[in-house]
Design goal:
Helix content: 25-40%
Structural class: alpha/beta
Strand content: 15-25%
Shape: globular
Largest sheet: 10 strands, mixed
Number of helices: 14
CATH superfamily of the largest domain: Ribonuclease H-like superfamily/Ribonuclease H
CATH architecture of the largest domain: 2-Layer Sandwich
Radius of gyration: 25 Å
Number of domains: 2
Length: 515
């Protein structure tokens, strides 16, 4: 048996910056005591989230109750107040110093008859497409000289049941009987005969359309609007769970306080607020995440489309769509050609320079697979064009860690921030694990480390500190951190929205349109 020598290091948790330039490690505690980062003189203060509403009558009424709920303090029902702190309320009277404003002018009601016609469409994909069209047309009616800065799309029970929300939870992809089909079945059980039983008016089965995803298709469709407004989807069923929540009853996925934290922060971010930023992310560095996604509107499953997600030091995220890439038959992975790699990174650096107002002196590229020789050469050529003296770091961040696990004595797992170097280029990083600031491990299974393979100019400790920091820039939740850095964490979600957007159609570059 061969013993492997390795070195273990603990990387300190990085601070986040909030209102008044105060620092705190925990997003929720920082917001509670200091308020959002917008309070600095660097940008204007977001005083109101102007919220538009789209939904049927009952769902809109529940949405208004939800707004009233999160505008006030909410006690946490969880015993661990470090992990689940009470919610202070989003209003001008709290450290948020921001209120949610509603207006009848920003409200569009979906009629019950419109929903009935929708759910009676037999073909699932056609039904989902019709739902996207219905919501889009309602959103169009909200536009005016002073539009809202976020639109809350309420998903009624019937739309949730017959159209689903996403591929993960889409009940619509299970064959369901429409109300009309159920009525016909009842009549058949009563021995009612139909012309179709005798072969008359038999319609040929239509070829199955490409799979629609209601959430992603709607987020893609609103980019057709002349001035796109970010949308937030909320199910009517979720409202009922939160509004009728009973303490001590069967444990729900989220108690009202946890829901309020996540929901209010997402609205604040989509309204172009900046809840927090990292304290020590280098200002001269351009962070780029490279990934691939399947184009649902295409036909060849051996082709994916490349995309880049670009981040500045303050966490501003931009999305770029690249070109089609064929699968490597030997590795079963997708890789860019040298020209594709060069062009994609050139575009990414150009977007960074326009957003940050400076030429980067360092470029860090995150990728979930190894860098091919062609990709390496293409990326280097793009960096050379932008800045001959720029430092460069190519970092593979993989969930495939060959089953490597480390244990520590006691009741809790390895600390989040544990870095274990297996060789000069290969390292293990725990982005999940026991977290001292919240005094627990916020997981249910043994934490899995990430495999980090680094080639570049910076020290591995700096690379891994940045990765840890970038796991705390997910403004769609107030969880302490995510498993993957933001450069890669939502590549699948962003790709799914892009996959519902036909090529050649204009895209929104800001990250908040995809969250």
């Amino acid at each position: 048996m061969t013993l492997i020598n390795f070195e273990a290091t603990y990387l300190e948790e990085q601070n986040l910056v909030f209102g008044g330039m105060h620092e705190e490690k925990d997003p929720r505690l920082g917001l509670k005591y200091f308020g959002p980062y917008h309070f600095t003189t660097e940008s204007s203060i977001l005083e109101k989230v102007r919220l538009g509403l789209v939904g049927n009558k009952s769902a809109i009424e529940k949405a208004k109750k939800i707004v009233g709920l999160i505008s006030n303090p909410i006690e946490s029902d969880e015993p661990n107040k470090w992990l689940f702190p009470p919610f202070p309320g989003i209003s001008k009277d709290t450290k948020f110093q921001c209120s949610i404003e509603l207006s009848e002018n920003w409200q569009a009601t979906i009629l019950d008859d419109e929903i009935s016609r929708l759910v009676n469409i037999v073909d699932t994909n056609e039904r989902i497409g019709a739902a996207v069209k219905l919501f889009y047309e309602k959103i169009e009616t909200i536009y005016e000289d002073n539009p809202p800065n976020v639109i809350l799309c309420m998903v009624p029970y019937d739309v949730e049941e017959f159209c689903g929300i996403s591929e993960r939870t889409r009940g619509a992809k299970t064959v369901k009987s429409t109300p009309l089909e159920k009525e016909i079945q009842k009549l058949k059980e009563q021995n009612q005969s139909f012309l179709s039983d005798w072969g008359i008016n038999e319609v040929e089965a239509k070829p199955k359309l490409k799979g629609y995803d209601f959430r992603n298709a709607l987020k893609g469709k609103i980019m057709d609007l002349p001035s796109t407004i970010p949308i937030q989807l909320l199910k009517e069923s979720t409202c009922d769970v939160i509004l009728d929540y009973e303490k001590g009853k069967i444990r729900m996925r989220q108690d009202p306080a946890s829901f309020a934290w996540n929901f209010s922060t997402a609205l604040y971010y989509k309204a172009n607020g900046k809840p927090w930023r990292l304290a020590k992310l280098r200002q001269d560095t351009c962070y780029v995440g490279i990934s691939f996604y399947y184009d649902k509107l295409g036909f060849n499953r051996d082709i994916q489309t490349s995309m880049a997600q670009v981040f500045t030091n303050n966490g501003e995220g931009l999305v770029l769509r690249g070109t089609e890439v064929y699968i490597d038959e030997k590795t079963n992975e997708f890789h860019l050609s040298q020209t594709q790699a060069e062009d994609l990174l050139k575009d990414a650096i150009d977007r960074y320079m326009k957003k940050a107002g400076r030429t980067p002196s360092r470029i860090v590229i995150h990728k979930s697979t190894l860098f091919s020789t062609a990709e390496d050469a293409g990326f280097r050529a793009a960096i050379e064009t932008a800045n001959q003296n720029a430092k460069k770091d190519f970092v593979t961040i993989s969930k495939r860690n060959n089953g490597i696990r480390f244990m520590r004595m006691g009741s809790y797992p390895v600390l989040r921030g544990t870095l274990i170097s297996l060789s000069e280029s290969e390292h293990i990083l725990y982005t999940s694990g026991y977290t001292p600031r919240i005094r627990t491990y916020p997981g249910h299974s043994i934490p899995k480390p990430l495999l980090i393979i680094h080639k570049g100019d910076s020290e591995i400790k700096e690379i891994c500190k940045e990765i840890l920091g970038l796991t705390k820039l997910n403004w769609n939740t107030t969880a302490f951190a995510t498993y993957l850095p933001i450069t890669l964490a939502f590549s699948k979600r962003v790709g799914e929205v892009l996959s519902e957007r036909p090529k050649g159609k204009p895209l929104q570059n800001h990250y908040r349109f995809y969250m």
